[in-house]
Amino acid sequence: MLAGKAQPFGSSPGTSIDHAMTDTTQFHVRHLERLPLGTTYPGIVEHVQRLMNRAPLVPTDTLVIDYTGCGRPAYDIFVSRGMSPIGVAICSGDSVNFNGLTYTVPKGLLIARVTALLHEGRLKIAKELADAPALVEELGNFRATVTESGRWTYGARSGAHDDLVLALAIALWRAHGGDVPGMAAFDYMRLQKRTAGTRSEFFVGVDLGQSSDSTAIAVVEKITPPTATADATHAASPTKDFTKRIAGGHPL
């Protein structure tokens, strides 16, 4: 591969993830949105709080926010409002590091997770969502490029956005287990404390906007067996009722 050669999203051999062929867990994108450019951090926090208080979400669902660069001030505001976000600082490299509720996660790992779930058919995007076409376009614009030093870099092509992709990627990374030893057991215990009888849980990803990009939010529902295989119609296409309830037809 020549240095500087770009490959379409999902084609990079630079990062691999092991997957159990018997894993039938489904990940459904239930909500997508971009906040108006220039929305203040307090405004972002208030918006996310309202979203997480709207059924079927609950305030104790997992919130994952972009901790990269200017993300720290926003993270602190979330915490000051009584929330417990997981901070993800996106970096290069190939290993995950963590300190309490903040993690440093390679972008290649985040993108590889999205890629793998798409290829396996376990990531579903609700076609009813207004921003679904924008997400699909961002996925198509994402590129993996190898530098002169042999390092893989990942990002949208020049002039394109990647905010929805990254909001989705950090939510999926945490929903899939977070690549941290012991996290699966923690998730299992947390799931048992959610609504009795349910086998699904929700993850909210927030990619904080910069000067030229809006803040993006993605809500992912993780559906574990047997729910993922019990209703073929539900697995193939998310219900309109869910989208209607979470958007509510009103400003969030």
Low-confidence stretches: 1-21, 227-252
Choose one word for the global shape.
globular
Structural domain tally: 1
State the end-to-end distance.
46 Å
Strand content: 15-25%
Query: In this structure, how is the largest beta sheet organized?
Result: 8 strands, mixed
By DSSP (H or I, 4+ residues per run), the number of helices equals 9
Number of strands: 11
In the sheet with the most strands, the strands line up as 5-6-4-3-10-11-2-7
Mean pLDDT: 75
Structural class: alpha/beta
Q: Helix and strand string, N-terminal first?
A: EEHEHEEEHEHEEHHEEHHH
Assign a percent range to the helix content: 25-40%
Key structural traits:
single chain, alpha/beta, disordered C terminus
In short:
By secondary structure, the protein is α/β, with parallel strands linked by helices.
